[in-house]
Amino acid sequence: MDSVIPRKRILYVDCLRILSIIAVIMLHYTAELLTTSNDFNSASWWISNFFNSISRFAVPVFFMISGAMILRTEIGSYRAFFKKRVVPLLISLISWSFIYGLYNQYFILKSKMGAFEFLLDFGYRLLTDRNYVHLWFLYAIIAIYLTVPLVSKFLKSCSESDLRYYLLLWFIVNIAYRLVYDSVERLTGMQLSIPILNIPFFMGYLGYFILGYYLYHFDLPLKAKNILFNMGILSFFIAPVATYFVSVHSGVLDEMFYGNYSITTFFMAAGMFVYFKEKEDAMSAKVNHKLQMLIGSVSKASFSVYLIHLLIELIVSGGTEFQATVLEAALHLAVNISLIFIISYVTVKILNLNKAATYILFGGRG
User: Are 214 and 163 in contact (CB under 8 A)?
Assistant: First the structure.
């Protein structure tokens, strides 16, 4: 059996989950205007660009939290681990792919597709990750979870310096090289390929997963903390401005600084994780028990909110106005993000009252 070291809820992890799910809703909500309008000087575009840019920490932070939490698990049985950790994700993936597939075909596209044809199309889309935009995360996290029984043993045999070496090499391969590659391509039109940096195991989201484990278990030197924190703050300001300039240069939205491996996204995510970890004791002292219970409840629902929020957005909200003042665009965004988040959370809690619904829709997770 796999067992988790008993601990009380970790307040800073709960806060990061809540901020990240709000950020995910924000970046999905603002994406429509950014991808349909090239009016880079309009108030609506700038408001959408600003909030989309500063929300980019969300996905890396989710991977980091998953690494920090799941790698605490002592795995004795592969079967028990997969049953507890992977099967619920597979159930959620199938259920929500089916729900979004139905909604897309029959409510958005107004399709006349028959049931058998729909099931064939659904099966193909499920296999190839083409059902709905945000469900890619489940494919990615399931893939990582399949490696956890081995990765966990690898990490436990590593010293802190070993992990730093891994993370440094991962940073060079994924973050620094990506920045150089993108910069060269946009400045010269050439694609810079460095084969020696094609290093399996040091590529992809696994690095964020291990980074979360490292930052959770080890205390960084003060200088390193300050660098991550200050670079994170700078990145929140640089990302929207840099996105504006590269988009103007390209003539369409350029997502160079939106990517999960962009230099600004990395420092925003790592800086936030370090900052909130440092504030754990101070937050715990100031937050009363009832508020901690509420924060814990929202945090536990974050995965379910992630799954349902785009359906809620499609049903209840309108897009950002293309022609609006800064104040109008900001208020419109704030109101709609709040509505989507609150309705998603309340809907999840209602569905959780039924065990069958919780199992079918969320793999049994609250």
Answer: yes
How many other CB atoms sit within 10 Å of the CB of residue 121?
16
Cβ-proximal residues to 290 (8 Å cutoff; 6+ apart), any chain: none
Q: Residue 227, class by beta-carbon neighbours within 10 Å (0-12 exposed, 13-18 middle, 19+ buried)?
A: middle
Q: Two tokens at 144? A: 């990582």
Q: Using N-to-C axis directions, what is the helix angle for 263-278 and 206-217, rounded to 10°?
A: 20
DSSP structural state of residue 220: P
Nearest by Cα to 68 from 135, 18, 5: 5
Specify whether the CB–CB gap between 239 and 265 falls below 8 A.
yes
Nearest Cα to Cα of residue 60 among 92, 14, 10, 16:
16
pLDDT of residue 109: 86
CB 207 within 8 A of CB 298: no
How far apart are alpha carbons 172 and 203 in whole angstroms? 10
| Per-residue H/E/C for 333-355 | HHHHHHHHHHHHHHHHHHHCCCH
Paired tokens of 308? 């349902």
Res 322: pLDDT: 62
Positions of the chain with pLDDT under 70: 1-7, 318-323, 366
CA–CA distance, 247 with 245 (Å, rounded to integer): 5
Report the number of secondary-structure helices (H) and strands (E) in the chain: 17, 2
Q: What pLDDT is stored for residue 220 in this prediction?
A: 94
Q: What is the pLDDT of residues 134-174, one digit of tens each?
A: 999 999 999 999 999 999 999 999 999 999 999 999 999 99
C-alpha neighbours within 13 Å on the C-beta side of residue 191: 2
Q: How far apart are CA 114 and CA 127, in angstroms?
A: 20
Cβ contact 262:268 at 8 Å: no
For 29-79, the pLDDT digits (tens) are: 999 889 888 899 998 899 999 999 999 999 999 999 999 999 987 888 899
Which pLDDT belongs to residue 320?
57
Q: Name the DSSP class of 70.
A: H
Q: Give dist(CA 111, CA 126) in Å, integer.
A: 18
Phi first, then psi: give them for residue 245, nearest 5 degrees. Answer: -65, -45
For residue 30, the model assigns a pLDDT of 92
CB 93 within 8 A of CB 142: yes
Beta bridge partners of 3: 74
